[in-house]
Amino acid sequence: MKEYSNFSIDYKKSKGRVFSEKEDSFRTCFMRDRDRIIHSSAFRRLKYKTQVFVYNKEDYFRTRLSHSIEVSQLARSVAKIFRVNDDLVESISLAHDLGHTPFGHAGEDELNLKMKKNGGFNHNFHALKILTKLEKKYSGFDGLNLTFETLDGILKHNGPIKFKVPEYISDFVLFFDGDLEQNGSFESQLSSICDDIAYNNNDIDDGLHAGFFSIDELSEIDLVKSVLKRIKKNKFNDSSRVRYELVRNLIKIMMNDLIQNTKENIQKHKIKFSGDIECQKVKIVSLSDDMIREERKLKLFLKNKMYLHPRIRTMTIKAKKIISDLFDLFIEEPSLMPGNWNRFTNDKQKFINVCDYISGMTDNYAINTHRKFFDLYSF
User: Homologous superfamily of 29-175 in CATH?
Assistant: First the structure.
């Protein structure tokens, strides 16, 4: 295995945690972050949250959990090649989707609409709220008390933040004297691009399995066409094997492009230390311009053939209806929410509690809760 890193990074050094803790005898701070994320309630719930297909329709399709594991696998592989912190990149990758609502982006869009006058809803920001406030497993603090590097990496995995953030984010950024407008770390950038590579190519797999489009339709994309030419030389008779070979080869091509282009960017910008990456005005960890163009073609194809497909649109409409009904119900009757969710001191806090409660639901729990309250024959 070739190693491409020519810059220095300290695997153990961290700015620390908001609440001071004794270091572990055998695990680094980033290993502990990863372990805390995996054992969190929010991480387990990803198993039952929509990626594209509602979970209860068929168990073949990917969920937020399987997607997060796939992102982590890709990112760790590249991290080892560049000799950066693979425990940190794993933590960021596994946690990057923790803030997603039930029913994926459909649920997020509806909650954002309902919260328009109370700060809106952003799944990436909400992941930080879960990790710093909503998970309650420790006697000494709320949240998981993760390191600054993990929290900052999750926050910036889609790039620098150049607009106002909620207080629960600004609090930890100010505590560590962080800079929202700087680029994320190498590990953060790596998690982001592996997120794109994973969901684009695995959506091809899910879309072909669902019958939304055919291999022949996909071959209209130049990159896919070139891969299929090589696959057909092997004369596979099994169509499912062609699908698996196609997805596997597309991922490999994109990952190789990512590695080579990132190596060239490190040399071009004369990166010597990990901190140099965050100071750049461009992302260092990135695909080549040619591959970005091919990726855009792929995204457009998936949008037209899959995300806007009548079956997906029908699921989206139903999902938004469920979220909307539940939100309105709990605003009118907050006592129907369990535990501390129904405790608040003003209307804004009531809206926030309802939003946080619904966003934590799984697909099935949201469906069953909706059925419980809106099915006239269910008592």
Answer: Hypothetical protein af1432 (1.10.3210.10)
